[in-house]
Design goal:
It is a single chain. Helices cover 51% and strands 20% of the residues. Helix 6 packs across helix 21, helix 8 runs antiparallel to helix 9 and helix 9 packs across helix 10. It has an eight-stranded mixed beta barrel with strand order 13-14-16-17-18-19-20-21, surrounded by four helices. A five-stranded antiparallel beta sheet has the order 2-1-5-4-3, sandwiched between helices. Strands 7-8-6-11-12 form a five-stranded mixed beta sheet, sandwiched between helices. Strand 11, helix 11 and strand 12 form a beta-alpha-beta unit. It has 640 residues and is α/β, with parallel strands linked by helices. The protein has three domains: 135 residues, PAS domain (Beta-Lactamase), CATH 3.30.450.20; 155 residues, Alpha-Beta Plaits, CATH 3.30.70.270; 255 residues, TIM Barrel (Alpha-Beta Barrel), CATH 3.20.20.450. Keywords: Membrane, Transmembrane, Transmembrane helix. It holds the Pfam family GGDEF. This is Diguanylate cyclase (GGDEF) domain-containing protein.
């Protein structure tokens, strides 16, 4: 959730509280007026009206007995704190009875009151005395006792103490106001706490725990954002720095000493860069630096040489031993050498190793000397051939409901059955596949094959819903819903047997377009879930409005939730958030019984991971399902 959105949520909540409290206040005032009018009517009917004989009213005065009885009754009410003043007038304004308050001139009946009384309707007015005490004036037009018609003959004004009118109502108002404020503030405070935890966890995920520098994940995020502003006139430079002979330090002085050296190098790099430049630790003894505000390639070269000179001249001391640090630095420029983080990193790596071999210290990437491009081209060619020859296969990993341990569905995961290298996991080929522009054709093949397999299982009496991962580019294709529906129709598979898993990155690339495509899929009965939730940056506002059915909590949170209180807290919060949004919550990456038991206690709906089953081929999954059904004595699958 962005700061602007958080401020907006606060403003809306505070506005809602103010509006609700104002509405409650108005309701209390109206209720007090009604109670006051009722009390005044009782006083007028019992205390005054029996004494208003028609002849006396016409004569302009009441008898001494009538006045005495009214004064005595008024005195009792004043002593009990139920009355401030009482007065009776003829409609022409001449007084018939004035108790002490009116006689002293504190209360009066105005000409406007006399004119209004002719309508025959009573009314109330709130007043505040000079001493700050409030009271309620109730004016009641009444016909005289024994009059021949119901025309108004006299006017009664009853003045009541405001503070004592409705103590129960005022107490009720205070309770309602307190509960209203609490109810309206609770979700906002919950969101703030969750946002704080997510941001803290997000920041931790961006930091290298050893050196405190930004890590590789942060480099990908920051570099991707800065690439959008890079141009030939204002290039962005990425430097990859690899220390020389660092392994010697580890083997001679030990790994703790090596860690201390890395911490000192990190501090030296941070001190050497300019404001606005960013330093990252990629892993091991490899660092990276993003340079902005450059005028040309020569500026990047000079900055790299300055960094290397600073490292060579700095003093490093570990376990009483003075060390000299040298390094190789490779430099790439965007957009000249690439427009993606992967391209810039790979080419900066090439330049760094060339600088080490040439013992030049620093080197800018030169495509004419990059032998790695040949391997990249060969990989792209192999992948195209693999698609044409259908060398890819799908393995399936089951998900189980934690409530009854029934299998709810399976996730389709792609593998490459390489002719010579054997079965390859996705990490080996997916990056090259993405760079080669082949991710969308592979996604289409996975969809078709997964739907075909689910239909085959259904015909064989083993109904299993299948989940398929959709790439960000595929999600934003206008014809994705139509193509998915066509594949389902061709396989005679109901839409309820297919679930599409999308990443947070895919949603945030183009939230409006993603929401439109997801709405079309949802309208066709196809479920959609957010995969790896908690690892990206999905806005809670978007999550609230997206037509999704499930959240899959990222394995990075699950795997350490029992050791890290922060991971446990965020996981618990995400489960609660998902349930409040009406979503199924799935935990992935389950590897121990302890984690599984804790997730069950937290109310997580489903689980997936190696503890349950690794991804396996279709025939192996069928055997696993059969064995599980025998062990549990229950159906092997159900569609949820």
């Amino acid at each position: 959730m962005s700061s602007v959105l958080l401020v907006l949520v606060f403003a809306v909540a505070l506005g809602g509280i103010a509006w609700s409290l104002q509405a409650l206040e108005k309701r209390a005032v109206v209720r007090a007026d009604d109670d006051g009018l009722e009390s005044a009517a009782v006083i007028a009917a019992s205390l005054v009206q029996p004494h208003l004989h028609a002849a006396d009213v016409l004569a302009g005065q009441l008898t001494a007995d009538d006045i005495g009885e009214m004064q005595a009754a008024a005195t009792v009410l004043r002593r009990d704190g139920r009355l401030i003043g009482l007065g009776v007038w003829r409609l022409d304004g001449s007084p018939l009875f004035l108790d002490d308050a009116f006689a002293e001139g504190r209360m009066r009946l105005s000409d406007a009151d006399l004119q209004r009384a002719a309508s025959g309707e009573p009314w109330t007015v709130h007043r505040v005395d000079p001493d700050g005490e409030g009271h309620l004036e109730v004016t009641i037009p009444v016909p005289s006792e024994g009059a021949s018609d119901t025309a108004v003959a006299s006017v009664v004004k009853v003045v009541l103490p405001r503070a004592d009118l409705t103590p129960a109502a005022l107490e009720r108002l205070d309770r309602q106001q307190a509960w209203t404020a609490l109810i309206l503030l609770s979700p906002v405070l919950g969101l703030v706490l969750l946002q704080w935890r997510l941001r803290r966890r997000q920041e931790e995920r961006r930091r290298d725990p050893l050196t405190g520098l930004l890590n590789g994940r942060a480099l990908t995020d920051d570099c991707t954002r800065l690439l959008a502003k890079a141009s030939d006139r204002r290039p962005l430079a990425l430097l990859v720095i690899d220390l020389t002979e660092f392994k010697t330090v580890n083997s001679t002085l030990g790994h703790p000493a090596g860690d201390m050296l890395l911490q000192q190098v990190a501090a030296a790099l941070k001190a050497a860069v300019r404001q606005g430049d960013r330093v990252f630790r990629l892993g091991g003894d490899e660092f990276a630096v993003l340079l902005r505000d450059l005028r040309d390639a020569s500026g990047a070269q000079k900055r790299a040489e300055s960094l290397l000179r600073h490292l060579r001249e700095a003093s490093f001391r570990v376990d009483g031993v003075d060390l000299v640090v040298d390094a190789g630095i490779g430099v790439t420029l965007a957009p000249e050498h690439g427009t993606t983080v992967a391209d810039l990193l790979q080419r900066a790596d090439v330049a760094m190793y060339q600088a080490k071999r040439a013992e030049s210290g620093t080197m800018i990437y030169d495509a004419s000397t990059d032998e790695h491009d040949v391997g990249e081209l060969a990989m792209g060619t192999e992948l195209r051939r693999a698609l044409e020859n259908e060398e890819f296969v799908l393995h399936y990993q089951p998900k189980v409901a934690l409530a009854d341990q029934c299998v709810t569905s399976v996730e389709a995961l792609v593998r490459w059955q390489h002719p010579t290298r054997g079965l390859l996991p996705p990490g080996v080929f997916l990056p090259a596949l993405e760079r080669s522009g082949l991710m969308q054709p592979l996604t289409r093949w996975v969809l078709r094959e997964a739907i075909r397999q689910a239909a085959s299982w259904r015909r064989a009496g083993m109904p299993l819903a299948v989940a398929v991962n959709i790439s960000p580019r595929s999600l934003l294709e206008d014809d994705l819903p139509a193509r998915v529906l066509a594949k389902l129709l061709a396989a005679d598979l109901p839409a309820s047997f297919l679930e599409l898993e999308i990443t947070e990155t895919a949603v945030m690339t183009d939230p409006k377009k993603a929401a439109l495509v997801l709405a079309q899929l949802n309208a066709r009965g196809i479920k959609v879930s957010i995969d790896d939730f908690g690892a990206g940056y999905t806005s809670l506002a978007h999550l609230r409005t997206l037509p999704i059915s499930a959240l899959k909590i990222d394995r990075s949170l699950i795997s350490h939730m029992l050791e890290r209180d922060e991971d446990h807290a965020v996981t618990e919060a995400l489960i609660g958030l998902g349930h409040r949004l009406g979503l199924t919550v799935i935990a992935e990456g389950i590897e121990t019984d302890e984690v599984l038991d804790r997730l069950t206690q937290l109310g997580c709906d489903e689980a997936q991971g190696y503890l349950i089953s690794k991804p396996v081929a279709p025939d192996a999954l069928e055997g696993w399902m059969a064995a599980r059904a025998v062990d549990q004595g229950s159906p092997s699958a159900q569609v949820s």
